[in-house]
User: Which sequence fits this backbone?
């Protein structure tokens, strides 16, 4: 999918910088995720934390989403790699799904590859911001 076909996304300036550093550091061991995340960061509209729109996936947010192909619904908290725990619903930003969710808003969909390379359509149903 080309960048032009992907929905617009939004990032917080400080998170975008940290995510970029994280992606660059992960290039050797997770090249596909790093490339996808860097592409998303590059095309994002960046905001200060104070001006960040509501209902948008950011780090620490809880995200309810559905895989439109399988109908599977999931609720995850998007976290940095050291805090990831799939069993507890804490999904790393350095996972394919995590990199696909960042910056999307409620109601948006994105066509995104899974580990097998199959593109899935993910739809954001609800975003709960992190607690301050």
Assistant:
């Amino acid at each position: 999918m080309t960048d032009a076909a992907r929905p617009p996304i939004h990032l917080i300036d400080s998170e975008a910088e940290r995510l970029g550093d994280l992606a660059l550091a992960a290039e050797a061991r997770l090249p596909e995720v790093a490339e996808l995340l860097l592409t998303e960061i590059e095309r994002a509209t960046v905001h200060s934390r104070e001006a960040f729109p509501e209902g948008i996936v950011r780090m620490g947010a809880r995200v309810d989403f559905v895989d439109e192909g399988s109908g599977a619904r999931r609720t995850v908290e998007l976290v940095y790699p050291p805090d990831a725990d799939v069993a507890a619903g804490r999904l790393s930003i350095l996972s394919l799904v995590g990199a696909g969710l960042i910056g999307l808003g409620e109601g948006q969909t994105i066509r995104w590859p899974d580990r097998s390379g199959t593109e899935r359509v993910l739809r954001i149903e609800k975003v709960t911001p992190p607690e301050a």
Residues 93 and 99 are 5 Å apart (CA to CA). The chain has three helices and seven strands. The beta strands are 10-12, 45-47, 62-67, 73-79, 90-92, 109-113, 119-128. The radius of gyration is 13 Å.
